[in-house]
Every structure is written in structure tokens, then in C-alpha cells.
Amino acid sequence: MEAFTLAVAKGRTANQTIHLMKKIGIIFNNFTSSSRKLVFYNSDKTIRLLFVKAVDVPTYVERGAADVGIVGKDNVLESEADVYDILDLRIGQCTFAIAGKPGENLNKEKPITIATKYPTITHNYFSKKGKAIHIVKLNGSVELAPLIGLADAIVDIVETGNTLKENGLVVLEEVEPISTRLIINKASFAIKSTSIQPFIEKLRLGLEE
Ligand SMILES: Nc1ncnc2c1ncn2[C@@H]1O[C@H](COP(=O)(O)OP(=O)(O)OP(=O)(O)O)[C@@H](O)[C@H]1O
Ligand SMILES: O=P(O)(O)OC[C@H]1O[C@H](OP(=O)(O)OP(=O)(O)O)[C@H](O)[C@@H]1O
């Protein structure tokens, strides 16, 4: 079978991804998410795994440095990468939402300010609604922004809702559901179909079990 390269997002979804691989019979020798190693091979060396920062996975796949990627839909949408989004792996399930102080009005006359780690998704969402906004790009602890007057609201991931709750914020509007996806480089999908298609099918079956 022709070998292919798989980019897997580091971070909170990594262990579940490796667990899913194991479930479908693909074992990466010596893999531990705490290791400093960045390249791993499965037992028969037909899959090379690259362990990369989540936000970079769509870039690896779009540019063909990896044929296949496993990463959150948030990163796929934010990158606007030209890749096939093939399969919902049902890992890392959460929701994109607009959040703010209770009663915050998102429909004011003048443009509101939104703080977010996801400026592209935020821009696209509000421009579809025909609403002008200002965006403040932050890299984390986004929930602080409405508390200290840096922004009127945030666009961020909500999973348990604990972070919002502990900071006195609420969901004002749900944007869309997010989960970990299988993405594929468009050329690889055609050229390496003999190895990539069976991999997709195994994953599909594994998800049904
Ligand atoms: N509660 C959550 N918060 C953030 N991401 C979540 C959550 N639940 C699931 N996810 C998924 O996990 C991915 C984030 O993983 P992680 O937080 O490890 O990465 P990261 O944000 O790139 O890391 P870092 O904070 O080190 O930059 C997201 O892209 C999202 O798809
Ligand atoms: O609804 P919850 O279960 O509380 O999860 C949501 C929180 O988790 C993420 O932050 P993360 O832990 O990645 O930290 P960050 O502030 O550095 O982005 C996300 O940005 C929210 O802040």
C-alpha cells in the first residue's frame, strides 16, 4: 500500500485521536502525547504521523506537506484552507458562540467590538448578517475582554460553559457546532486514493461501532 502522511493536532484532542486509531487497528509505535518527538510511524510504516500545533494542521494539509489531517473544525474554518473536510470524528465536541454579559445587546446602531481568537470566522459570521463590527484579536483568556471593557462580547468555543459561568458571562447567540474533523489534501485524495480511501472507510466503520 502506498504510504501517506497524517498531521495530527497536538493538545487536548491528541489522546482521543490516537485512541481512535488504535480502535481501527492502527498503532503508532512509541507514541505518547507528552513526548518531544514529532514524527511517528505505524507498525508497517504505511502511515507517517506528524504531531503539529492544531492551528497549523490545515496549512500542512493544504500545502501537501501532509496528505491527511485530524483537527478541530474551528481551525479548518479559521484557516479557510482549500481542503476536503471528509468526516466528523466526534472528538472535541463543543460549540462556537457569541458570549457576553447577561443582557448585552448585539444589535446596537453603532458597530460593537468583539474579542476573539478567531478573527476570520468572526468577520465571516457578522458580514453574512450584514453587521459591521470591530474585532480585537486575542490569543487566549478571551473571557476577560468583556469584563474589563476591552470588548462588548466575544466569539469563542464553549464546551461545559464553566469558563463563561465563572466569569459571569452567558451565551448570547450560538454560531455553530464544532468537532474534530478528518481533512484531506485535494490532490492526495485523487493520487493516493488506494491508501487514503481504505483509511477513511476504516474510520467510518470504527465510528459506527
Ligand atoms: N473546551 C474547549 N476549548 C477549546 N478547544 C476545545 C474545547 N473542546 C474541544 N476543543 C477542540 O480542541 C482544540 C483545541 O485544543 P487545544 O486547546 O489543545 O489547542 P490550542 O488552542 O491550539 O492550544 P493552545 O491553547 O496551546 O494554543 C480546538 O481546536 C477545538 O477543536
Ligand atoms: O466551556 P468550557 O468547558 O469552560 O471551555 C471553553 C474554554 O476553553 C477554551 O479555552 P482554553 O482552555 O483553550 O484556554 P485559552 O483561554 O488559553 O484559550 C476556550 O477558549 C474557552 O475559554
From TrEMBL:
Pfam families reported in the protein's UniProt record: HisG
Principal place of residence: cytoplasm
Catalytic activity: 1-(5-phospho-beta-D-ribosyl)-ATP + diphosphate = 5-phospho-alpha-D-ribose 1-diphosphate + ATP
Leading EC class: transferase
Annotated SUPFAM superfamilies: Periplasmic binding protein-like II
Positions in coiled-coil regions: none
Record EC number: 2.4.2.17
Localisation: Cytoplasm
Listed InterPro entries: ATP_PRibTrfase_cat, ATP_PRibTrfase_CS, ATP_PRibTrfase_HisG, ATP_PRibTrfase_HisG_short
ATP phosphoribosyltransferase catalytic domain boundaries: 53-204
Single GO term (MF): ATP phosphoribosyltransferase activity
Any Gene Ontology CC annotation: cytoplasm
Keywords: Amino-acid biosynthesis, ATP-binding, Cytoplasm, Glycosyltransferase, Histidine biosynthesis, Nucleotide-binding, Transferase
Pathway terms, separated by semicolons: Amino-acid biosynthesis; L-histidine biosynthesis; L-histidine from 5-phospho-alpha-D-ribose 1-diphosphate: step 1/9
CDD domains noted in UniProt: PBP2_HisGs
Signal peptide start and end residues: none
Biological process according to GO: L-histidine biosynthetic process
Protein family per UniProt: Belongs to the ATP phosphoribosyltransferase family. Short subfamily.
Summary of the function given for this chain in its UniProt record: Catalyzes the condensation of ATP and 5-phosphoribose 1-diphosphate to form N'-(5'-phosphoribosyl)-ATP (PR-ATP). Has a crucial role in the pathway because the rate of histidine biosynthesis seems to be controlled primarily by regulation of HisG enzymatic activity.
HAMAP family: HisG_Short
NCBIfam families (UniProt xref): hisG
Subunit note: Heteromultimer composed of HisG and HisZ subunits.
Domain notes: Lacks the C-terminal regulatory region which is replaced by HisZ.
Name used for this protein in its record: ATP phosphoribosyltransferase
